[in-house]
Design goal:
Blueprint lengths: L1 H16 L4 H10 L4 H27 L3 H15 L2 H7 L2 H20 L14 H18 L4 H10 L5 H25 L5 H23 L3 H23 L1
Keywords: Cell membrane, Membrane, Transmembrane, Transmembrane helix
Subcellular location: Cell membrane; Membrane
GO cellular component, one term: plasma membrane
Length: about 240
């Protein structure tokens, strides 16, 4: 029952913020007694469910960025395939420290970026997008997040995407990275299938309502909500780690 509740909460966060859900699910699982590597495994499987369903619901509004999203996603898939090896060869503590550093980067970058862009993003070099996706895929899948926690601030802060559009693209990216992470960590014997399925199926309910609420939220308020979420998660991770 606890895992199902976590799934609904994570799904809502995933749909509303355009994230895989790992950034909220991993701290919740750590607080409930799972170790970092177990939390990463459950989170990765949950993201497969939430990202596919969420991207389907976002499809009509986000279709103009799916071209870039596919290129970044392919890079993320290749990078995500490396995550099982990394998780198997580093400590739980190292993964938690990495998670905290990424949260700090995301908070700073989004804070200094505008909530909306007046101009449309320029066409980007495909190789650069592929490389960005590759490295995000490696890092994100190793700490149990989909990658949008890193991708969104990069898209908004450096590539000039609108914040809501960036989160839609970020959730689309999670499809590629999470499937790769699932395959990689399954091959390494790290996956918790039953727990991941419970959380993943329950998350579909939350995703639906999260996207509905997102579409009704103003851009300036949306930015504040994203910053607030990241700060709360950062405090939780600092408490659990130190």
């Amino acid at each position: 029952m606890e895992l199902a509740i976590f799934g609904v909460i994570t799904g809502f966060i995933s749909g509303f913020f355009g994230v895989g859900g790992g950034m909220i699910l991993v701290p919740l699982l750590l607080m409930s007694g799972f170790v970092m590597k177990e939390a990463v495994a459950i989170s990765v499987m949950q993201m497969v469910f939430s990202s596919i369903y969420g991207s389907f619901l976002n499809a009509q509004k986000a279709k103009e960025v799916l071209k870039d999203g596919t290129i970044i996603g392919i890079g993320g898939f290749i990078g995500g395939l490396q995550s099982g090896f990394i998780v198997s060869n580093v400590s739980n503590e190292f993964l938690q420290y990495l998670f905290i550093l990424i949260l700090v980067f995301s908070i700073v970058r989004i804070f200094y970026s505008p909530a909306s862009q007046e101009a449309q993003p320029k066409s980007q070099n495909r190789f650069i997008l592929l490389i960005i996706g590759f490295f995000i895929g490696i890092v994100a899948m190793s700490i149990g997040v989909g990658g949008s926690i890193l991708l969104t601030p990069i898209l908004v802060g450096f590539l000039r995407y609108d914040l809501k559009m960036a989160t839609a693209l970020g959730l689309f990216f999670v499809i590629f990275s999470s499937i790769a992470g699932f395959i990689s960590q399954s091959l390494q014997g790290l996956m918790l299938y039953q727990e991941g399925a419970i959380v993943g199926i329950a998350s579909l309910i939350g995703v639906y309502f999260g996207i509905k609420v997102k579409n009704l939220t103003k851009a300036t308020s949306y930015k504040k909500f994203i910053l607030l979420l990241n700060i709360i998660i950062l405090i939780t991770m600092l408490y659990k780690t130190f």
